[in-house]
């Protein structure tokens, strides 16, 4: 399957500022402690990449641009994660939640599409079930 198109900007992304921050941070917040990634490959399991921000970007956005955009959010302390070109491991922090609360009420704010919030929530629920199954409860872990 190809990347579902939940792109939040209509045209191609040419520079980092073309892509709004809010939908990306909203997506990471919706993962609720699970880690997110910029990675995307074609995969037979349609929910395999539920934790990827890639579908928020216009189709055919170079991965380096996606990875850089996310790295800036990490550098600015808006989300937790890694800025090297690894999978990213983006995680929510209190600052992420505060950022969304402040930005979402601004006029003209570009929001994360409901379908993407749903994808993140499915991933978060999956993780919750697995942690419960292992008896780990609320222990903070990067287990996906
Ligand atoms: Zn890294």
Computed Rg: 15 Å
List each distinct ligand once. zinc ion
Amount of helix: 25-40%
Q: What average pLDDT do the residues reach? A: 91
Count of domain modules: 1
Tell me the number of strands: 0
Shape: globular
Distance between the amino and carboxyl termini: 22 Å
What is the structural class?
mainly alpha
**Topology as H/E string?**
HHHH
**Regions with pLDDT < 50 over 5+ consecutive residues?**
none
Main beta sheet strand tally, sense and closure: none
Please work out how many helical segments DSSP would assign: 4
Bin the strand percentage.
under 5%
For this entry, what is the oligomeric state of its chains?
single chain
Map the helices and strands:
Layout: H1 22-30, H2 63-75, H3 94-103, H4 114-133
Helix pairs in contact: 1-3, 1-4
The protein binds zinc ion (ZN).
